[in-house]
Amino acid sequence: MSSLDAFARAHLARLDEDSLRRRLAPTARGACATAQRAGRELISFSCNDYLGLANDPRVVAAAQEAAGRYGAGAGASRLVTGSHPPLHALEERLAAHKGVEAALVFGSGYLANLGIVPALAGPRDLILIDALAHSCLWAGARVSGAEVVRFRHNDVEDLRRLADDHRARHRHALILTERVFSMDGDRAPLDAILAIAEAYDAWTLVDDAHGLGVVEAGARAPLEMGTLSKTLGSYGGYLCASRAVIDLMVSRARSFVYTTGLPPASAAAALAALAIVEDEPERAVRPLTLARRFTARLGLPEAESPIVPVLVGEAEAALALSAALEARGFLVVAIRPPTVPAGTARLRVAFSAAHGEDQVDGLAEALGTLLRQGCP
């Protein structure tokens, strides 16, 4: 056995001991929030397709038409090969949707934050970041070389105190947060955060990956990024900002400059989905309505978004509860450290406009029964 394989096997053994090893499961997603896994049809509550647009015939047709017309891939970085027409149209529509001058599409949401933050901050600068911000925001902050200071989750007084303590010693400052937090489903107090940013001349970057199209009301930040892979049912990431900022990203965001452009089919699918979001606003109401139906039936705190965490505690217990639900026909994946803090393993229940009330009630009944029976 090579030393490399020995290292990998030893590390895997430790992950197994702590119930933290991840495994891939072949799964085919279908319409009406269904999924096929191991020969069984399940009702999936583990997907971020909040409006059910990934399987919408109009979105699928747009992807097929673009692939047939422009090919399967973009060919190279957009600075080398140019921007195919669906990408240009998508960026214009994203900018209009957010009410800003311009937008830039990246290969994924993770790549977006990995490029945006270092393009704006360096060793002489300060980054104030929510303690529960997504991994990609943390990755971008660390790559930047700036001083990185975390503030307590959604605690504006802690943010104000840290800004007061640190801001004067730095050239520029960024505040990083999320509109809807991906593992807890709660919302950032953006009005208060933006007021602090203005008082201390800081630039706020909001990750809107889980808010676009479902929880968008309220204040907008000068830097709004998100993904095309959740509400819009496609794949990719984006930044919406002023024209000057977007032009700077084209030259300075390394994860844009050195990455092949988004495939035409993905861009066209997202463009079609965004048109549906804007033309059919009644869709946006349904996921939160269903989430609140679920929390009411289980006596949980009222949902703030389509994401509802059911805290379990230890990773092994979360896995056991997930397996018990799968046996009853529901796909609700366990979320474990390091994605969430130690001792807070959970089921992350995600609601979609594609779910029926009977499916939501069925999950609530099954989960309630299992919890009353002491599982896990």
Automatic annotation (TrEMBL):
The keyword Transferase applies. Residues 41-367 form the Aminotransferase class I/classII large domain. Keywords: Pyridoxal phosphate, Transferase. Its cofactor is pyridoxal 5'-phosphate. InterPro entries: Aminotransferase_I/II_large, AON_synthase_class-II, PyrdxlP-dep_Trfase, PyrdxlP-dep_Trfase_major, PyrdxlP-dep_Trfase_small. This is 8-amino-7-oxononanoate synthase.
